[in-house]
Amino acid sequence: MGEDIQAYNGGGWIATKLEWLINWGRKRSPWPLPYGTACCGIEMMCALASGYDMARFGAERPSFSPRQADVLIEAGTITLKMVPILKRIYEQMAAPKWVIAMGACACSGGVFRTYSTLQGIDRVIPVDVYIPGCPPRPEALLQALGMLIKKIEKSHPILHKRYSDFLVGY
Amino acid sequence: MEDLRERVEKCLGPKGLVVAMTECRGDLSVEVPKARLLDVMHLLKDTPDLEFDFLSDVFGVDNLAFYEKQKPKKKPEGEETEVKKEKGPPPPRFEVIYLLLSLKRTERLQVKVRVAEDDMEVDSVTSIWKAATWPEREAFDMFGLRFKGHPNLKRLLMWDEFPAYPLRKDYPLEGRGEERHLVYGE
């Protein structure tokens, strides 16, 4: 229990702020959608597996359906042919949703400054956390998840209706 | 057993199917006329002495840089008006190279066909080796070579509406912005 939540003895009820409660729920279960397209995907699998165990931080179940995912972990190179698919998958995710761009290719295109590679996924979808590295180690992904959790903590889901804007038209 | 070079020469030579033959570090390469490609391939596959029954790869080559180097240079501003005479007509721009392997004899052979820019049609070898379908599609995708008789000649790596042939030497590395409608458009 944090400082923002108070339990009253024996009363069976608590007093807190609604936004804090919503964030508390969201930050404890950022289910990832693993979108591994290159070697970063191997590091992501490693971070999800028992050695690093990303489930400790609430990324309990890699959600292979975008409908049930909260965090899109885009690990790897995105070719231009892949762009419409990436966009569609992002749009299929239910709000609230976040995106982690893992690795140099996802952040900026990496070494592939060519006709066939997207120069950073932030050209097509909004990105919350960038992880540099080629590929980054699993620890970096865990740190990124920690940063994302801090970001979720600071958000104001009711005051700033950022995510409800997304819902219009979908 | 004769040398591979002699056997290939003996098989193709009398029929006039050898344009040139070179050897580089133990790898034999034979250039054949484009119009007779299928005859050559059938012979190489079925002749008992050769038996090239496995097609490892098919790919294209763009010799544009080489071709331009051979062209007489435009007059620089000074007095160097002397223009080198060409020995003959410039070589065709593209090549298609077939890498053959004989599994029985563990021998390899390169077969080369030259393709001019104004006639990009080459006979498909898919009727002889099924393995040629994807590499020929890739060569079509990257160079615009048209393989006659291919069962499904469409782009393999780039998307269908892609308007250029990206491995040609005159295509810029970073593209010409063809992706704009994919990335930003709706």
Architecture overview:
The complex is a heterodimer of chains A (170) and B (186). By secondary structure, chain A is α/β, with parallel strands linked by helices. Helix content of chain A is 35%, strand content 13%. Chain A has helices at residues 18-27, 39-48, 83-92, 103-108, 138-154, 162-167, and strands at 6-7, 14-15, 32-36, 71-75, 98-102, 129-131. In chain A, strand 3 (32-36), helix 2 (39-48) and strand 4 form a beta-alpha-beta unit. The N and C termini of chain A lie far apart (36 Å). In chain B, 22% of the residues lie in helices and 23% in strands. A five-stranded mixed β-sheet of chain B has the order 1-2-5-4-3. In chain B, strands 6-7 form a two-stranded parallel sheet. In chain B, helix 4 (133-143) links the parallel strand 6 (121-123) and strand 7. The radius of gyration of chain B is 20 Å and the shape is globular. With 186 residues, chain B is an alpha/beta fold. Chains A and B meet through loops of A and loops of B.
Short description:
With 170 residues, chain A is of the alpha/beta class. Chain A has helices at residues 18-27, 39-48, 83-92, 103-108, 138-154, 162-167, and strands at residues 6-7, 14-15, 32-36, 71-75, 98-102, 129-131. Chain A has one domain (32-168): Rossmann fold.
